[in-house]
User: What shape does this take?
Amino acid sequence: LQAVLDNPVFGGAPLLVVANKQDRASAAPAPEIEAALYLNTVRDRHCQCIGVSALRGDGLAQVRPHSQAYP
Assistant: This one.
């Protein structure tokens, strides 16, 4: 992840982490994933982790606007 963030090609581009499989009991919640990836330490771009379950459709409405903003 750090190599991607350091790559000038992606300079300042927002980072969206989509945490799928949230319907599973063993799934790490989005805040836990954010902490594990140290997203709160990234200062040069907006970073967000959204928990989703593609199976149930949960969270997809939150992800959709982000995916449409960057074709």
Remarks:
- The longest strand covers residues 15-19.
- The radius of gyration is 13 Å.
